[in-house]
Amino acid sequence: MRVLGIDGALGGFSAALLDGDAVSEAGSDVPDALEAGLGRIAGVLAERGLALRDLDRLAVGIGPGSFTGVRIAVSYAKGLALAAGLPLTGISSYDVLTPPDAPPTVLTVVHGRPGVISARLRVGTETRAAAGPVANVLATLLDDFRSGELALAGNTEDVYFAIAERGIVIRTLPRGAESPARAVARLALTAVPSPSPHAVAPDYGELPAVMLRGLT
């Protein structure tokens, strides 16, 4: 299967093409999706000698993460999917940052604005998520935590000491070496595409106050 994944939520903007066992990818550590995003996508396709119509599906990281990066990446993905008539799959940043071999109980953290995070607690097949100031998010997700050791993934430095102060035993999971876009494409191999590209919705976590005022 040929899958193109793009992500602007986690750091810079990355694009990755999985073509069977072959991989073509490019990325940046700076938020340059608007300036270089479409060129980067075209580059990974050209490296494999492919066009959009040669793909089986597209995938995009839907956040949470960078507000601007998520918005641009999702817009690109929807436009490309509609233009080429391809199915589109949205992949959560939580799934990108959670290692495939993570234990059943894991807290995955995505960095936001200073003092703000988005986090998802997975216990078995049940998940809960929250976004906002660190203390508020941890209270929402961990006040009733009674499961012993807690695996921690993602931006662990934002919450490690605050969780340890709760007397919870923490095991920090190593970050994967693959780029966010490559993880997005890999996860899309087994995910169910959205019924329509229009149905893929971004997850911005907690929006800045100025954004919330603009939406009212």
Briefly characterize the structure:
By secondary structure, the chain is an alpha/beta fold. The chain has 7 helices and 10 strands.
β-strand percent reads: 25-35%
| CATH superfamily (homologous) name of the largest domain | ATPase, nucleotide binding domain
Spatial order of strands in the largest sheet: 3-2-1-4-5
Q: Total domains, how many?
A: 2
Given the structure, what is the number of helices?
7
Low-confidence regions: 210-216
Spatial shape: elongated
The total of beta strands comes to 10
Q: Give the rounded overall mean pLDDT.
A: 92
Instruction: Give me the CATH architecture of the largest domain, please.
Output: 2-Layer Sandwich
Structural class determined from secondary elements: alpha/beta
> Could you name the CATH class of the largest domain?
Alpha Beta
Major sheet: size, sense and barrel closure? Answer: 5 strands, mixed
Kindly report how far apart the N and C termini lie.
43 Å
SSE series: EEEHEHEHEEEHEHEHH
Briefly note the CATH topology name of the largest domain: Nucleotidyltransferase, domain 5
Roughly how many Å is the radius of gyration? 18 Å
Query: Into which percent range does the helicity of residues fall?
Result: 25-40%
Structure description:
Helices cover 31% and strands 28% of the residues. Helix 2 (67-84) links the parallel strand 4 (57-63) and strand 5 (88-92). The chain contains seven helices and ten strands. The strands form two sheets. A five-stranded mixed sheet has the order 3-2-1-4-5, sandwiched between helices. Strands 8-7-6-9-10 form a five-stranded mixed sheet. It is elongated, with a radius of gyration of 18 Å.
